[in-house]
Amino acid sequence: MNLLEQKLANYFEKKYCLTTGSGTTGMYLVFKSFKKKSKILYPAITCIQAVNAAIFAGQKVIFSDVSLNNYTMDFNSFKKSVTEDTVAVVPTHTFGNICEIKKIIKFCRKKKVFVFEDATQAMGAKIGEKKIGSFGDASVISFGYSKIIDCGSGGCILTDSKKLYENLKKNYKTIRKKPKNHKKILKEYKEKYYEIYDNKQSNEDFTKKILKIQSRYKKIFIHKIDKYTENRILKKIKKISVIIKKRNSNHDLYRKKLKNINLPRKNKNFVSWRFVGLVNAEKRNFIINNLRKKNINVSTWYPSLHYINDKGKLTYRNAIKIEKEIINFWTEQSISKKIIIKNIKIINKILWN
Question: I want to staple 120 with a disulfide (CB 3.0 to 4.6 A). Which of 23, 52, 216, 233 is the partner?
Fold first, then answer.
């Protein structure tokens, strides 16, 4: 392992770490170690790139519903979703909210299901003294856009399995370098993304079209890490305690002063990736449009992804409710308290209309 990998392994108290060009690349490599067409179980509310990592690797994705408590994998739905041919589960700490990782792992040990912990949005969070990202058979961390440690790109895989680590290193050699025109291609992809989003007929329509678009732009998601990104991560990771403190302070400010929004349960020792909550579904577009006119960063991530291969909508009633009502705000450490207080006043005014 190089210096960065050793530091990350030490931080998470894991034996092995492999840095990659993105969190998606790391996930792709892990999924490549499984037999093709294996069933991989995700929560229905998650980042679509994480799901595409399995699809890129030739695997089959399935989904469980999520909990309204904190929008992560619902444990009862998860148990019902695991079948004899489920090879791996991806418990995800979505938005920085801590999922029921201990209960999921205990259940998976009995079923001999591989636990691939997605901590891409929760670096620095803890359960007791144990860091999120150190629970799974393998775990993934991201240093991409707006993540806890934002370096524009980069990711890593953590594990205690020497066999898996050696397999990851072997397959990593086959990954192409980061394209020299990465920024140009990424900009082109984003334009396509928002064009599809703005003209979507439904969330199902949007999800399926984005999956196809991401397949066409695979090279911006799957690539090696470069030295520039490695050095940025090395510098920024030294400041992680300060970053987390500021992010959580911004989050708490929203939580204390924002009105007329249904909030998820707050975990102890969580890390804020975004401040999220639910609003009236019929008013959400009005709220979003008016906030953007005021230049306030706001989004409706994430749509439910169960549409990819399952139309049993009653099974995913929580995910469907969330995708219709969710609203989220940025909590980056670069945002001042003054700006957030100003934004909260505007948000509250619009929410009460």
Answer: 23
| Beta-carbon contacts of residue 267 (< 8 Å; ≥ 6 apart) | 70, 97, 98, 125
What one-character-per-residue DSSP string does 49-96 give?
HHHHHHHHTTPEEEEE-B-TTTSSB-HHHHHHH--TTEEEE--B-GGG
Q: What is the mean pLDDT of residues 35-60?
A: 96
CA distance 336 to 333: 7
Q: What six digits make up the tokens of 224?
A: 């090696």
Dihedral sign from CA coordinates of 316, 266, 330, 287:
positive
Q: What residues have CB less than 8 Å from 302, skipping those under 6 apart?
A: 45, 46, 47, 48, 94, 323, 326
Looking at domain 239-351, its CATH architecture is: Alpha-Beta Complex (3.90)
Fold assignment, 3-231 = Aspartate Aminotransferase; domain 2 (3.40.640)
Q: Given the structure tokens 């890593």, which residue do they identify?
A: 156
- Residue 336 burial (CB count, 10 A): 11
Q: Label residue 310 exposed, middle or buried (CB < 10 Å: 0-12, 13-18, 19+).
A: middle
Please report, for the chain, the start and end positions of each structural domain, with discontinuous segments joined by +.
3-231, 239-351
Determine how β-strand 114-118 pairs with β-strand 130-131. unpaired
Distances (CA, A) of 53 to 197, 273, 274, 350: 21, 21, 23, 38
Q: Which element (helix H / strand E) includes 117? A: strand 114-118
Note if the pTM is more than 0.85. yes
